[in-house]
Amino acid sequence: MTRPAPQDVRTVACVGAGVIGGGWVAHFLARGYAVRAWDPAPDAEARLRRLVDAAWPALEQLGLAPGASPARLTVTGTLEKAVSEAQFVQESAPEKLELKRELLAKLDAATPAGIVIASSTSGYPMTDMQTEAVTPGRLIVGHPFNPPYLIPLVEVVGGERTDASAVEWASRFYELAGKSVITMEREVPGFIANRLQEALWREALHMVANGEATVREIDRSITEGPGLRWAFMGPMLTFALAGGEGGMAHMLDHFGPSLKSPWTRLEAPELDGALYDAVVAGCADASDGRTIADLVAERDQGVIDVLRATGRLPGTGAR
């Protein structure tokens, strides 16, 4: 089998059918693919079908692709049978490096030549996982966020022995499969989103351990504060608006010294000229031509929309 064009994929194999793998199964089914799944657990099929049934009402609200149906799921008895006719493979085994290495090598041996194989790993670089594969050029990371059938993000990156064409192909396939794709230019353990949320998580644990805040206070500080903005505008552009009409440059000039304040246990990088310029230029690029006034209006409307959707506006059943 030769590698199909991303738009021609009809059959996907999902190897590993736990929370993440099962979420991928539900997502691919909802996008109209035929899915062949395998998991070594004796009760894997029953658990997987329960997960798909539980996810289906939400998927119906999101909108199903033509032909989408749970009936298009086949659970196979062996790994080899699951991937024998696959046009794309999504691996979602437990986060154990030796297991990943061994499994990816088996998938490489069993999957038709040229077919891209993606790992849902939460943190391991593909360079560390592809060491035992005979044809590692087709192995990529396709890191989702839980649950994969609801959260759009998938981070795509190859390893040192991955072919650039496999990364490009996978990114395009995921886009066609309804995902929001970040194609990373270089590997970093934990990728992008996990590193950011892990930093927040670790600081939260420090605050609880030191009696500085309760779990309830920590959660409310996000859901009633920056989380409202992060739902539609990330931390970089959000901070750029703190600079007023001067944008990120004014924000860095004004608040840059606070990087040395003890606001977190993380060590801050030096705000040298290169970092300053990269952040300012990056915000200008991310603004996509929108002015500060445009971004402020977008932020304000976004917060109102989130508050209204969650019943937190006056007169909408506020909690």
TrEMBL record:
Q: Which GO terms describe its cellular component?
A: cytoplasm
Give, as in the UniProt entry, the pathway in which the protein acts: Amine and polyamine metabolism; carnitine metabolism; Lipid metabolism; butanoate metabolism
Enzyme class, broadest EC rank: oxidoreductase
Q: Which UniProt keywords are listed?
A: Cytoplasm, NAD, Oxidoreductase
Where is this chain's protein located in or outside the cell?
Cytoplasm
* GO biological process terms, semicolon-separated: carnitine metabolic process; fatty acid metabolic process
Pfam families reported for this sequence: 3HCDH, 3HCDH_N
Q: Name one GO molecular function term.
A: NAD+ binding
Binding residues for NAD(+): G16, A17, G18, V19, I20, G21
Catalytic activity annotation: carnitine + NAD(+) = 3-dehydrocarnitine + NADH + H(+)
Stated EC number for the protein is 1.1.1.108
3-hydroxyacyl-CoA dehydrogenase NAD binding domain ranges (all copies): 11-186
User: What family is reported?
Assistant: Belongs to the 3-hydroxyacyl-CoA dehydrogenase family. L-carnitine dehydrogenase subfamily.
Functional note:
Catalyzes the NAD(+)-dependent oxidation of L-carnitine to 3-dehydrocarnitine.
Its name, as the record gives it, is: L-carnitine dehydrogenase
